[in-house]
Amino acid sequence: MPILEISNLSVDFRTVGGQFRAVDGVSMAVEPGEIVSIVGESGSGKSVSMLALMGLLPWTATITADRMMFDGRDLLTISPRERRRIIGNDLAMIFQEPMSSLNPCYTVGWQIGEVLKVHLGLNKRARRDRTVELLELVGIPSAAERLDTFPHQMSGGMNQRVMIAMAIACNPKLLIADEPTTALDVTIQAQILDLLAKLQRETGMALVLITHDMGVVAETANRVSVQYAGQKVEEQPVSELFADPHHPYTAALLSALPERATTRRLPSIAGVVPGQYDRPAGCLFSPRCSFVTERCVDKAPVTQGEAAGYALCHYPLSHGKPVGHPGPAAILDRRLSA
Amino acid sequence: MFGFILRRLGLLIPTFIGVSLVAFFFIRLLPGDPVLLLAGERGISPERYAELMHRFGFDLPLWKQFIYYFGDLMHGDFGTSISTKKPIFTEFFTLFPATLELSICAVIFAVVLGVPAGVIAAVKRNSWFDHTAMATALVGYSMPIFWWALLLIIVFSGTLGWTPVSGRISLMFFFPKVTGFMLIDSLLSGKAGAFQSAASHLILPTIVLGTIPLAVIARQTRSAMLEVLGEDYIRTARAKGLSPFRVVAVHALRNALIPVITTIGLQIGVLMAGAILTETIFSWPGVGKWMVDSIFRRDYPAVQGGLVLIALIVMGVNLVVDMLYGLVNPKIRHQR
Ligand SMILES: Nc1ncnc2c1ncn2[C@@H]1O[C@H](COP(=O)(O)OP(=O)(O)O)[C@@H](O)[C@H]1O
Ligand code: SF4
Ligand SMILES: [Mg+2]
């Protein structure tokens, strides 16, 4: 049974410009002990979908879903109090900006200890011992002396380690890591990812890893979910995805990835993710897709079956060939007119 | 931290010189003659007048007067009042506890009401509470102190008869001065009803003096809180599964208080100015009222000495506030 099961999750924001759908019908399931990666360019709704799960979105957000289950609990109907017992405990999350994610007014030891007090009710002595243990676990040298340091006295990498220590303090069943390395130096990025992979192996927790880094996806994840403009456009086990991407967006991401990449960041495809005011009518990827036809522009595609990687496309690729595509003559050159 | 204090003390020197200059010339710019005012309506003979002018040193050239005055200041001599013949320093610090007691009450009043009001307004942003509180704060901030004091006196002392109009305590009570704080001394005296009397005398002056700081603190707390509530570490605190109360009271408030403490420090100077008006209206026997009386008497030494002492106190309080700021803000503490 999956530890996390989301079906048809949508998030709408009330903004001055009207309703804006940041997440649009996303489904995903995570098995215990599994590493699922979510990739997609900035603005694809990766963070928002996970924050919806955590109940951390502002009041301007409206969340709808057919199903949102975590560890046998229905997150859609759960009371705020019940949810607070789960998050930070069985379900934890770390964020992109380690330097601003810790409270500048409190020591790191105190901030980790707070989780232990609130969820596990540990006394002062036990909190201290466990905090030192956690800091050692995340590879912070001379952990006992670090208890009384403030976040601004440490580097971004060290702060992210503290965030990780805080997140795993109660042995979560699922850890969501939202681009945990994006804000860090390249040399530190690998260390933090190795740490997350190591902790995942040792504790057997499930991990949802949001990342820009295709190299990280290849090395760490079991399964990949590709998100674009709030929609999940493809989902496959990692080796299958790299071998045979079914959605043109995934294919473009992978083909733009240099063989021996100097930068392992998400490669760039011409154009940007549509925002609130420029959402196309049919397929959301149509302004940037090299297979786009009249049909793509007019009609939104539906999700394909598992064999086609759940691709959200009228002509899912099979070994690079768009299945059912009317041929090169039907392709619109929208990128020039746009 | 130590180096920081030294640097701040160093900055005080030019400020001190500036204040002494301003205090000296301010009172001499006002028309009127201290000796004539001292003589009163009975008048004074030209010989006696010359003698007094000479005794007080007012016959000397202005620059010489300033040199003497400043030299005395450097020796810690704040001069002697020409109307009471008492040293300014003694006179000032006999009256100062009354001003301090009123100021402390006003600050407590402003903080105790202003901080929670600002926090609730920020947390319940755009609610009726937010709108009401902020509109009230704006009114409180813009209201002339004099008018506000009279309004309160008319309603609470006049119509309702709840509070006394002037003074620090009812004349019925007489007891030795121990701390100079009426609330404490009245308790120490053990006389029944003395404390109640002292407290009731404090209510209106406290409200009047505390209104502007209250408005400023409430608005500042709200805006600081709004900013802090949008920070990443607040999201982290919520992701830890903490209760909304804990998120606000433990994680947000501490950070929001950092700018608020600066504001409170800046309000001390405003408070001193307000004390002068408030004490005059309520016949509160503090340094504010004494300053006004001295100005009317053109008591040059009293005014210039009093102004310098007030400035020294304001500077001292600001220094303490700055150190307090370092205590709540670890980032500052480690920079220094
Ligand atoms: N609080 C909010 N109010 C309005 N729009 C938001 C809010 N948070 C995020 N969005 C919008 O939702 C979209 C998805 O954001 P996000 O999930 O952060 O993307 P990413 O995939 O980079 O994590 C973006 O267009 C963003 O502007
Ligand atoms: S539906 Fe059409 S435009 Fe959209 S991804 Fe598929 S081929 Fe491209
Ligand atoms: Mg994001």
UniProtKB/TrEMBL annotation, chain A:
Record's GO cellular component terms: plasma membrane
InterPro entries according to UniProt: AAA+_ATPase, ABC_Ni/Peptide_Import, ABC_transporter-like_ATP-bd, Oligopep_ABC_C, P-loop_NTPase
PROSITE patterns membership: ABC_TRANSPORTER_2 (PS50893)
UniProt keyword Signal, yes or no: no
UniProt subcellular location: Cell inner membrane
BP GO terms, sorted: peptide transport; transmembrane transport
NCBIfam families according to UniProt: oligo_HPY
Family: Belongs to the ABC transporter superfamily.
Name used for this protein in its record: Dipeptide ABC transporter ATP-binding protein DppD
Organism, as annotated: Pleomorphomonas carboxyditropha
Automatic annotation (TrEMBL), chain B:
Annotated TM spans: 9-30, 100-123, 135-157, 256-282, 302-328
Molecular function terms, GO-annotated: dipeptide transmembrane transporter activity
Membrane topology: Multi-pass membrane protein
Domain of life assignment: Bacteria
Keyword Membrane tagged: yes
Family: Belongs to the binding-protein-dependent transport system permease family.
Protein name per Swiss-Prot or TrEMBL: Peptide ABC transporter permease
Source lineage: Bacteria, Pseudomonadati, Pseudomonadota, Alphaproteobacteria, Hyphomicrobiales
